[in-house]
Amino acid sequence: MTLVVEAAVLGILTGGVYALMASGLTLIFGVMRIINVGHGALVVLGAYLSFALFRSLHMDPFLSLLVTMPVMFLLGVVLQLVFIRPLKTDREALSVLVTYALALGIEGVLGYVFTTNFVELRAWYETASFEVLGFHITWVYVFGFALCLLILGALFLMLYRTSFGGAIRATMLNRTAAQLIGVDVDRVAAIAFGIGVATAAAGGVVFGITNAFNPGSHYDLISRLLTIIVLGGLGSLRGAVVAALIMLVTEDITQVLISPVWANFVFFVILVAILIVRPQGLYGVRVRDRI
Amino acid sequence: MAIPAGRVTALKGLALVLVAILALILPVIAPDPATTGMAVFTVMYIGLASAWNIMGGYTGYISLGHAAFFGFGAYSFGLLLVHLNVAPGYLPFVLVPVAGLLTALLAVVIGWVALRTRAATFVIVTIAFMFMLQLLGENLVKLTGGGAGLALAYSHDWGGDFFNIPYYYAMLALAVLSVGVSWWIRRSKFGLGLLAIRDDEDKALAVGVPTRSFKLTAFVISAVLVGMIGAVYAYYVTYLYPQFAFDPLIGISMVLMAFLGGLGTVSGPVIGALLLEPAQMEFAYRFGASRLYLVFYAAVFLIVILLLPRGIVPSVADLVRNWRHRRQVGPAQQGLASP
Question: What is the DSSP string of A85-119?
Fold first, then answer.
């Protein structure tokens, strides 16, 4: 039983990281109606940037976010301008392919620069742990969770308390109507994409400390993130957070009760089960032509 | 002065006959294993892209998870071969349709769930199913051998230059079947229904197209063809690993080829595969170790989608139509005629 509780706690802590990564993905979908299949690769890219900073300057992985997040934000804006904006017709389908291509390109470049060997981000809190009520919890999970709460909190504040956030939400609800009342939807889209990519960098650091990764790690990551945002309902930030927690807690409990090799599988089983009952996901709205 | 439509059809027919003859005698003209090996994979992708196009091109439901059916066909074939103790040689090819039948059962189940969703969600669900099957391949160690792989018996009589030949003709037969089915569907009432679904599913339903059963049928036909091709692939490579049988790159390659050639056309996927697969193999061969070939692949992909979003065949068809139109109207009226 204690094992199950411990697994649930760990699930919540890692679920926070996935919530952060998935919220960037679902934000991008909400604003632009595109699925960024390259999100996993961008997370891995963020992890590698921090890895490079650590290797050359011995910069603490969490501290390096001060450098990598702005860089990734700019990268996101550029990617949106160059590759996503030119798509005029059949955007939803074509964007999947474009971002898939970006993922392959990032994987190829990372493989060329860093080789395909697995690496890991190192820091003192990676292995150091503390004891609470008889459970051992590694510091990195707590720090990672705190970081995710911080960024998610900032994201929600930005969305619900600032006028730019209002513009983003208006674009998510109805692009044409937002345009009519004077929202510069192109600018909103570019910045939202940048924000999504910057959160990928933050997620990448925590992912990189808690997992060994290589350039090919993005396949596994993106399949999980996509599953999470479909489960939560495409475009719903709240849904992404809830779904991430459900998924990771179930996964960690399965790991303890059944076996680690089936933990991943449960992820997809939940998705299929939900889709049979509720094809639009937990918090999704069923709109004609969209779901 | 326009070329009469009848002569265009005749030209097309002639081209088809020439391509067929070339495909049949290719192993005689170029018998070296490097060429025939490349031919096996090129013909394989002609089949895969054409089969994918039946679902993705005609109905507009983009599946990025067709590698699930490829891998499932490969594993069902491999397991049948191992457990039935079939002697290697020509006999195992009989099991290919059996593998196709098993794939059909899987496709009905996956299709039933996945087709409850549309557009973006459908894309994601197909990806999820592919990874689900890959995980099953890794986890059901007693059945599949897991990550250690599944070894298939192969014929020792087929040595040297001959080794690729039986597989080449098997793949060719399946490619012809896929293109044939695709052509037949495009001309049928069923195909018309699929195109209506692509253009506007709700309107199609309103005018009486049984959208649910049409979509599922197209999905299953497409999956069965891919599964059978996977079976021949399994026999060809003789060793199956979950991460290579259920390879996301295989799933995306057939999509890219269909897009490059022209989505929803019969000849598009064929042309896309003919152009892309040899180029991809050449690149993987030269830059395989550094994984730079992925960058090449991404670059081709981006160029195709940003510059030729409709693919080669529709773009060329437009050019030809404009040219013929201009000749009909005459140069003087050109300014008036162009819309």
Answer: TT--SSHHHHHHHHHHHHHHHHHHHHHHHH-SS-B
Residue of B267, B258, B117, B253 whose CA lies nearest to B180: B267
Residue keyed to tokens 């995980």: B135
Cβ contact A291–B117 (<8 Å): yes
Residue B53 tokens, joined: 């196009």
CA–CA distances in Å: residue A109 to residues A219, B8, B248:
16, 46, 18
Report the relative pairing of strands A129-132 and B239-240 from DSSP bridges: unpaired
Least confident of A102-106, A282-286, B98-102: A282-286
Locate the domains of chain B by residue range.
Answer: 32-246
Three-state DSSP state, A282: coil
Identify the pLDDT of residue A191.
92
Q: Which residues of A, range 161-190, sit inside 8 Å of B by Cβ?
A: none
In-domain check, residue A162: yes
Running DSSP on this structure, what letter comes out for residue B29? H
Closest CA to B266 of B57, B60, B20: B57
Nearest CA in chain A to B294: A108
* Residue A37 and residue B249 in contact, taking contact as beta carbons nearer than 8 Å: no
Beta bridge partners of A132: A135
- Taking residues A113-118, what's their average pLDDT? 87
Cβ atoms B153, B81 nearer than 8 A: yes
d(Cα A240, Cα A225) in Å, to the nearest integer? Answer: 9
The answer, for A12 touching chain B at a CB cutoff of 8 Å, is no
Nearest Cα to B108, choosing from B197, B226, B255, B223?
A: B223
- pLDDT for position B333: 52
Write out the residue range of the structural domain in which residue A210 sits.
21-215
Location of structure tokens 């037969």:
B173
Each residue's pLDDT, cut to its tens digit, for chain B (339 residues) gives 455 667 777 888 888 888 888 888 888 888 888 888 899 999 999 999 999 999 999 999 999 999 999 999 999 999 999 888 888 888 889 999 999 999 999 999 999 989 988 878 888 889 889 989 998 998 888 888 887 888 887 776 777 778 888 899 999 999 999 999 999 999 999 999 999 999 899 999 999 999 999 999 999 999 999 999 999 999 999 899 998 899 888 998 899 899 889 888 999 999 999 988 888 888 777 776 567 778 888 888 888 788 877 888 888 888 888 888 887 776 555 444 444
Say what the pTM is.
0.87
Among B69, B67, B65, CA closest to B123? B65
Residue A237 domain-assigned (yes or no): no
Q: Which of B336, B337, B275, B334 is nearest to B303 (CA)?
A: B275
Provide the CB-side half-sphere exposure for A164 (13 A, CA).
12
- Nearest CB to A227 within list B128, B291, B301: B128
- The interface residues of chain A toward chain B in range 37-56, judged by CB-CB distance below 8 A, are 37
The verdict on residue A106 lying in a domain is yes
A287 and chain B in contact, CB less than 8 A: no
In chain A, the number of structural domains is 1
Report the pLDDT value the prediction gives residue A285, as an integer from 0 to 100. 66
Sign of CA dihedral A20, A249, B242, B173: negative
Measured between alpha carbons, how far is A244 from B38 in angstroms, rounded to an integer?
Answer: 44
Query: How many residue pairs from chains A and B have C-beta atoms closer than 8 A?
Result: 138
Contact across the interface for A29 and B120, Cβ inside 8 Å: yes
